[in-house]
Write a structure and sequence with these properties.
- The chain has 262 residues and is mainly α.
- It has one domain.
- Strands 1-2 form a two-stranded antiparallel sheet.
């Protein structure tokens, strides 16, 4: 199963782009998603679909990347749908809430924003090896090293966080299946009972996380990883014409959105 944060090897145009360009593009795209109008929503959605197709990321893999946050997205949609004031379109008597037209529009918009952010981040991690992602983040943060910020260590921490996301999801699924095989039922009973059943997964999941963190620390210590100062890289990142083209197009689009919004 493909999860958010897992790299998919490939030789597409998206895979070959410089990691610094992809990181900056995701940052710019995230800003556009937050400020998107109705017309821009369609444009950004088409672009994300085109980018996924260019990277040869299938629909099944996109849905698998969104699956871990599907519940959170549903909660966001329902909160806006039921608690946004406006013109009622579907009363929910005897409940003191109603589905409003403004709530439907707002819930759809906010859910789309969250899905767009997750999908853009998923495309970044799916098309960029973890080592290249660390190098790209470190190079982008390098100016901060002049004021004493440990940029290389910070980049490694970010990369570890991204890498641990799919690992923890896989570990959660493994523990859940193991307890289900032993008779545990996480779908039956009241909401309180199911919450207590899910809470039983927390202890083994935390123990597994601590064990993996300890193993990672030992592995880094065995490889003499004691700090980022003076560390070199095997592959030197060089910008290609395609990278400069992406930077140019991104700059034009961002400026167009800013000017059109004034």
């Amino acid at each position: 199963m493909i999860h958010l944060g897992q790299y998919l090897p490939g030789d597409t145009v998206i895979h070959r782009l410089d990691p610094r360009v992809k990181i900056l593009f995701v940052v710019a795209l995230s800003a556009l998603i937050f400020a998107a109008t109705r017309t821009e929503i369609l444009f950004i959605s088409l672009f994300l679909v085109s980018a996924a197709a260019a990277a040869r990321v299938t629909t099944a893999r996109i849905l698998a990347a969104l699956r871990p946050v599907a519940l959170f997205m549903a909660v966001i949609f329902l909160v806006h749908l039921l608690f946004t004031e406006g013109r009622p379109v579907l009363p929910l008597a005897p409940l003191p809430v109603a589905v409003t037209q403004e709530g439907l529009v707002r819930g759809t918009y906010v859910t789309w924003q969250f899905a767009g952010l997750v999908l853009s981040a998923a495309l970044l991690t799916m098309t960029t090896p973890p080592s290249d992602l660390v190098a790209g983040i470190e190079r982008l943060l390098r100016p901060l090293a002049r004021v004493g910020v440990p940029t290389q260590d910070l980049a490694v921490m970010i990369s570890m966080a991204l890498r641990f996301m799919p690992m923890m999801l896989e570990e959660y699924e493994r523990i859940r299946m193991a307890q289900t095989a032993r008779g545990a039922d996480f779908t039956a009973g009241s909401l309180a009972a199911r919450t207590r059943s899910l809470a039983a997964l927390a202890v083994p999941l935390l123990m597994s996380a601590f064990r993996r963190a300890d193993e990672l620390a030992l592995a880094m210590e065995a490889r003499c990883y004691t700090g980022g100062e003076g560390r070199t890289r095997l592959h030197v990142m060089v910008m290609s014409p395609a990278d400069y083209g992406v930077i140019t197009v991104t700059t034009i689009v961002v400026l167009f959105v800013i000017v059109s919004g004034l």
